[in-house]
Structure formats: C-alpha cells, structure tokens
Design goal:
alpha+beta, Aminopeptidase, seven-stranded mixed β-sheet, 5 helices, 7 strands, 35% helix, 28% strand
Length: 165
C-alpha cells in the first residue's frame, strides 16, 4: 500500500520527541479510565517517557510512522525475555486510523525482529476495551493468543504472541 507513510526506527532526537508526544497522546486517550490511570501510575509511565529511548534499546527499538514531517503513529519494541521482544504503546493519531498504517507498523516490527539475531518472537498484551479493533489485525498478522505472562490489574487482558518463522 502506497499511502506516502514512511516507517523507520526512530534514531534522531526529533524522532524520539515525536514518539514521546505520540505516547503521551496514547495515555491521554485513555485517561478517562480510572483503572488505566492507576496502571500508568504503577508502571511509572512518566519515567519511561523521560528516559526514551532507553527502555526500548537494542535488540528492541522505537518505530515511527511519518507522513512528510508529521508523526502518524508508532510503537515500541522492548526487550522482554531472552529471545523475545514486547510490542508496546502502539498508537495512531485518530485521523490516521483506517489507512493501513497499523499494519505497516506491525510488518516493520516483525521484519526488525527477524533481523535481530536470537529473537524468536514478539509478545503483546492489551486491555480488552482498548483492543477491539486491533485484535483482528494482530490475528491476521500471525499473532495468536497465549497465556498471561504478567499479573495484570485489568480483568480480561488479552495476551498474544508472534513466533518468528
């Protein structure tokens, strides 16, 4: 799909700042949910954002989608366990949804993981009410549901895994 969107690893200060702003928007989008607010506080989200790109360093990375010089969306790949990356913070600004950009981001993340020696898979977890439209996309891209890999404060959190071929 040629929608003019460029997907890349964020490697400049400008890229990192665009992702920091994007991730703050991700948080703001769900601030009405008291459980999410508590989750963010427990996860020390502000510290994570202040330390970008540190939590997402090699073998992971920060992935940015841009249209011209504007951010459209992004995600983080955080080292999770030996041979596994965790896909985190995938978010698209609302005006860029429904244009195939999420699929482009996931495709890029999968390709990146394949290029890193020793990476065998990608995991993710999503709160059900924040995940309704994305579940189909993840399944279409080879993710399958897996048992919980952490003790989530959210009832019904969905856990998925993508195994590299």
């Amino acid at each position: 799909m040629d929608n003019g969107v460029q997907i890349r690893l964020a490697d400049t200060a400008t890229d990192i700042e665009m992702l920091r702003t994007l991730f703050l928007s991700y948080c703001d989008a769900y601030i009405h949910d008291a459980d999410f607010v508590q989750y963010v506080a427990n996860k020390d989200y502000e510290n994570e954002l202040a330390r970008l790109p540190a939590p997402y360093q090699t073998p992971g990375g920060l992935v940015l989608a841009t249209l011209g010089d504007k951010a459209c969306g992004g995600l983080g790949l955080m080292p999770f366990a030996e041979g596994v990356l965790e896909l985190k913070r995938m978010y698209l600004y609302p005006k860029f949804r429904g244009q195939g950009i999420a699929k482009q981001l996931i495709t890029f993340a999968q390709a990146h993981a394949r290029q890193v020696q020793g990476i065998q898979g990608i995991v993710l977890s999503k709160v059900p009410e924040l995940f309704t439209s994305a579940r189909e996309l993840y399944v279409s891209m080879g993710f399958t549901e897996t048992p919980p890999y952490w003790d989530s404060p959210f009832a019904g959190e969905v856990y998925m895994r993508y195994t590299l071929a």
